[in-house]
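// run 5 | inverse folding | seed 20
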């Protein structure tokens, strides 16, 4: 029906309720999973609805979800995003509307192009339904099929058909035909058409309808923590894609002054939204919206994990190599001999040639050997990365990174991931008060743990935890690697120079940290006036050498983060 080259696994046949639960088949008689390209069918429900004679229709429909609409989780997510914009107040119904839209596209193609009996499937299902009375939404949906397939009114639509409902059904049918080859673009228009009916629908009836017809409800089940690519970006035409089809010239085929005005008004509104959401680096969703789309895809991730993935994906395009410092000489490897390789060592360390020479029968941990290496002085300089000690302000004036975009978090992620890429270790501290902080504690190379701290939120009063800076550097010696200290904050950074709980003066602690860190210190601050006009910052720069940068808006932190490594510690500015 779709392609002679399409290959899928044999369907998962569920013969009992227990098997349906195992496959997460909830309510509908068939469903798909886009994660493992599975089709799941309940034989019990097929018998219950009397669909034994429609095996080809049922299977062709489910396969259509895999190869036509939506095809994959990424496109399903993009469709949900467009529909959510067209469904204010009822965004929760976006998955159901997406299912209805995809079914229309698939069923129309199978009925008209392949000659399958899709209309008979609906009749059989309607005959088996003894409980639910069709509401206005379902009548509209069935009326669309009647128009698409030139069926007599009332063949499928059993509810009252008003003139307005009939007009909307004709618009819906036109959306399916006009955007059949560009279904993603038409998805927002279809959702906008259904908005009025969703607002009037009874929640209980909606849930019953979803249960019976929602064969894409678990499409993302089994994906684990794998998130489809491309969902973070807002498509160029997405914001104006929620236009009601009555204002779409492709749908109506008409163009008059009034329609043009309405179209221009809708487009202007969309562009205004775009200017509010957009930034110089591109168009991105907010973390909360990103998380809601993932939930509606069926991905079960806690908000904190979603935030980690959100900022990691946004940071990746901006990553640059972190600064390195030259050492007097490098150490080149020198082969010294062989040693037994045990099963706890990395498999790539096995010397298979020497192991085979030692014994023709390979027994891991017994006859396997690995090479031993010493070092010899080389002529080329070795580069040692500078570790990073990052302090990010998370007081009440800062946004919650799990809800709205936090450019402090994004800048911290860009710099931290750049440091890890270059081989450096990172210690991150999220702070609000002297006793309100979250920290990695040590200099680590665990990307997930670093982002876990950066995407946390405290939101309390502002007081820098001086003892953390003190304890980090008090015992460091010249044998330890150099560390660069970076503060991302606002004018609340002046609490760094107060006294700690032991009476130590903050100025002395900061000076000690810079001296023992040996990698310099930077402050990037959002202040309403130039930092040179703030006495505390002037003193910090003049007496202790803090490199201070001012940003007037938080989004400028992204530009700072990208330039930070190259400007201060790039190859052309090596730390001696």
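// decoded
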């Amino acid at each position: 029906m779709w392609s002679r080259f399409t290959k899928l696994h044999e369907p998962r046949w569920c013969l009992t309720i227990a098997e349906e639960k195992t496959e997460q088949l909830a309510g509908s008689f068939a469903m798909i999973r886009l994660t493992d390209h599975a089709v799941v069918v309940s034989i019990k429900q097929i018998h219950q609805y009397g669909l034994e004679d429609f095996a080809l229709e049922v299977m062709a429909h489910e396969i259509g979800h895999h190869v036509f609409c939506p095809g994959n989780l990424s496109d399903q997510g993009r469709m949900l995003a467009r529909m959510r914009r067209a469904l204010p107040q009822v965004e929760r119904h976006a998955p159901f509307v997406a299912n209805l839209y995809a079914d229309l596209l698939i069923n129309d193609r199978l009925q008209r192009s392949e000659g399958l009996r899709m209309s008979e499937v609906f009749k059989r299902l309607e005959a088996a339904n003894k409980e639910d009375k069709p509401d206005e939404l379902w009548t509209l949906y069935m009326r669309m099929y009647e128009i698409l397939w030139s069926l007599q009114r009332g063949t499928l639509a059993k509810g009252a058909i008003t003139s307005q409902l009939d007009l909307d059904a004709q618009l819906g049918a036109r959306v399916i035909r006009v955007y059949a080859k560009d279904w993603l673009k038409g998805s927002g228009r279809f959702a906008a058409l259904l908005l009025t009916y969703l607002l009037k629908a009874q929640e209980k009836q909606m849930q019953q309808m979803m249960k019976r017809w929602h064969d894409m409800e678990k499409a993302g089940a089994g994906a684990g923590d794998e998130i489809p690519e491309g969902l973070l970006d807002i498509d160029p035409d997405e914001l104006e894609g929620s236009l009601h089809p009555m204002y779409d010239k492709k749908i109506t085929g008409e163009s008059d002054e009034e329609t043009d005005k309405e179209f221009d008004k809708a487009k202007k509104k969309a562009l205004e939204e775009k200017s509010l959401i957009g930034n110089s680096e591109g168009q991105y969703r907010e973390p909360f919206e990103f998380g809601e789309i993932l939930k509606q895809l069926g991905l079960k991730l806690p908000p904190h994990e979603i935030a980690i993935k959100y900022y990691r994906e946004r940071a990746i395009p901006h990553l640059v190599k972190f600064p390195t410092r030259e050492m007097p000489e490098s150490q080149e490897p020198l082969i010294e001999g062989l040693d037994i390789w045990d099963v706890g060592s990395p498999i790539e360390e096995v010397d298979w040639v020497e192991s085979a020479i030692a014994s023709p029968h390979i027994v891991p941990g017994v006859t396997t050997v690995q090479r031993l290496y010493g070092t010899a002085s080389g002529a080329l300089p070795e580069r040692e990365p500078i570790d990073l000690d990052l302090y990010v302000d998370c007081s009440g004036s800062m946004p919650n990174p799990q809800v709205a975009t936090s450019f402090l978090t994004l800048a911290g992620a860009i710099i931290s991931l750049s440091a890890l890429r270059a081989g450096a270790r990172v210690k991150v501290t999220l702070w609000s008060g002297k006793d309100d902080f979250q920290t990695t504690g040590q200099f680590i190379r665990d990307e997930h743990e670093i982002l876990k701290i950066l995407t946390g939120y405290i939101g309390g009063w502002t007081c820098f935890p001086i003892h953390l800076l003190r304890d980090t550097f008090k015992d460091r010696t010249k044998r330890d690697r150099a560390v660069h200290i970076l503060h991302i904050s606002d004018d609340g950074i002046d609490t760094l120079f107060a006294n700690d709980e032991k009476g130590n003066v903050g100025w002395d602690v900061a000076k000690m940290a810079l001296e023992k860190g040996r990698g310099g210190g930077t402050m990037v601050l959002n202040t309403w006036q130039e930092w040179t006009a703030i006495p505390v910052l002037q003193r910090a720069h003049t007496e202790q050498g803090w490199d201070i940068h001012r940003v007037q808006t938080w989004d400028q932190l992204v530009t700072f983060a990208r330039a930070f490594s190259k400007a201060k510690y790039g190859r052309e500015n090596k730390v001696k």
